[in-house]
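Consider the following assembly input.
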Amino acid sequence: MKFLTTNFVKCTSKACDSTTDNFPLQFNDCELIQEEQEFKPEFLLNILDRLDWSAVLKVAHDLGNDSLPQALPENVDPEDPDTLALLKDLHSLLLETNITQGEMKCRACEHVYYIKNSIPNFLLPPHLA
Amino acid sequence: MLPTPDVAADYEKVYEPAEDSFLLLDCLEQEKDYINTHYSSSPLVVEIGTGSGIVTTFMHQSIVPNGLFITTDVNPHACLASKATSLKNGGTPYLDSIRSDLTTALRDNIVDILIFNPPYVPAEEVPGIPKSEDAYEWLDLALLGGSDGMVVTDRLLESLGTILSPNGVAYILFCARNKPQQVVENMEQKGWQCEHIMTRKAGWEVLSVYRFKLL
């Protein structure tokens, strides 16, 4: 499961939809690998608009990375060397970092979902579905 | 004609691409211009019940090469197969597969293009999830859709408004026994714009694909 996906997934329990604690999930005991991808600055720029940045920061923190800026720069100019460096960092984090094993806990209901073979499993046991 | 992806899947556990899959590919090929004019170059494309992954791979190979792709399936073998099929055809910058019921694990209103080839065959009931990962019942899950073959599709249609982004569309496949005309009338009454894309006779089944978009 790529890091970027952590920005798209939430707890599947309907009861948690009424809270704001069902996203992002809290990541624990994760094993990570880096899988190389071609760096395409324009592709990264397309993704930036979609990101919930505070969720990126929270999940990065769960995984032991506190080096990201607190906010994204307002005008992202890929010609600017600092911005290019940031895009490269984000490329490595969002697209190259894979969570192969680990746990994802909902901050609302505390249900724990597992990641195995890089596939997160969001099926709820029958009594919760 | 655009190339058909090579598939990497074990057909004892994952649905083998068939007439319905190929109809979807042809529909998406026909929709290429529509998709490229209505969406940014990196739309979020989500395929529910991906099976072998052939449809999503076709999307990144031939329709939206810079898209973001998520496949979902309850079958863990399908989740792995969809990633393997994508890689076998050269891969794409972002594709992930999540094991879930429909899109229940995704945040609301983020999906730009939703694609669903549902279990549409009328049956007494929708099968439960097999207890063993090795069970051959996984294939039944890909086929059997309960009453009118619509039990799973109806659940999706009910929540479509919370799944799609404000400009999002869904491509859904039906067989004639699903009574798609009736589905379309119901959806239009609820404010959806429903466009018929293609119909094809496949053996004794008549399959069709519709596009749904909020007005």
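The mean pLDDT of chain A is 94. Ask yourself how this observation constrains the way the partners meet.
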